[in-house]
User: What shape does this take?
Amino acid sequence: MRCTVVGAGVSGLSCAVKLLEAGHEVEVVSDRFSPDTVSDVAAAIWYPFLTAPADKADVWGRETYAELERLAMEVPEAGVRMRDGREYLREVVELPPWRDDIAAFRILESQEIPDGYVFGWEFRAPVIEMPLYMPWLKSKAERMGCSFRLESVRDLSEVPGDVVVNCVGLGARELCDDAEVVPARGQIIFIDQDPGIGHFDQQPDTLTYTIPRSDVTVLGGTAQIGDWDLEMRPEDDELILDKVEALWPDLDRNKIIGGTVGLRPSRSEVRLEVEIAAGRTVVHNYGHGGAGVTLSWGCAEEVVSLVSQSA
Ligand SMILES: Cc1cc2nc3c(=O)[nH]c(=O)nc-3n(C[C@H](O)[C@H](O)[C@H](O)COP(=O)(O)OP(=O)(O)OC[C@H]3O[C@@H](n4cnc5c(N)ncnc54)[C@H](O)[C@@H]3O)c2cc1C
Assistant: This one.
């Protein structure tokens, strides 16, 4: 089938690759390409965060973990590396359902937990270096025969193809008139210092992370709902650094080398479903919040299955 994927972030490009693998003809139409998408700004570690529905996200997340782990082992140029991280919690909670499906997971000893926290776990997860991963993903699709067109889509019914796959992220607010999609503003800082192990507090109110990449460590974060400001704010830098220092006291502020801002496409839950519009199948795949990379391959698999069922 001739499939048109609208959107060239991690969701759109992953769908393009999976559709090509399934033997479809694919064109990606987008008003922005890497390095100018939200996906390029993602920190990015595999971790189901700020996303729903939980049961589906668990399945999509597990499938994505397996594929990212494979890329880390077999395709170094994709920019995926397995790293250990520690999640700290202010109360004892149920263990995450994916704990038995990842490479390593253990509960922290009390002496490994910083002041102010009472519980936590260490986990091994893929760190996805988006400045490498996004160009790799696009070139993979290109090598498989994908074509690309720079265009802003105003009406999905005017897009060519037998099937349309809608991966516009925050763009769905206008394109689908979906007021449920809102920005969750994320500011991050880059530092030329390696914490050795990643430190995390991924509760929305206290969100803190250190994600060691091979070039820099990414420090975060913020998740300001409904905030469209793309400028770096000094007060947010201060907030992030104070939070990170509580988890990583050795942080050296002299080693900060920059930062950036991105707007996560937040929604009450991911919209992954079929709509028949003007007699044609449209598969929506947007609203992944803070976990678009974490869910990317699992969602793409489901998109392909929905496309196949529509034939
Ligand atoms: C600071 C920060 C840190 C993050 N860290 C992580 C992390 O550690 N792990 C993780 O899993 N996720 C993380 N995320 C979340 C992740 O970045 C997003 O969930 C993900 O990028 C969403 O991808 P997407 O492809 O759906 O959307 P996008 O990347 O926004 O792509 C949407 C595409 O659609 C195109 N588009 C939009 N409207 C139109 C239109 N009308 N016509 C044509 N094209 C259109 C855009 O140009 C773009 O190409 C983070 C995000 C931020 C901001």
Q: What stands out?
A: The chain has a mean pLDDT of 96. The first helix runs from residue 10 to 21. The domain at 2-309 is CATH 3.40.50.720 (Rossmann fold). Residues 124 and 308 are 34 Å apart (CA to CA).
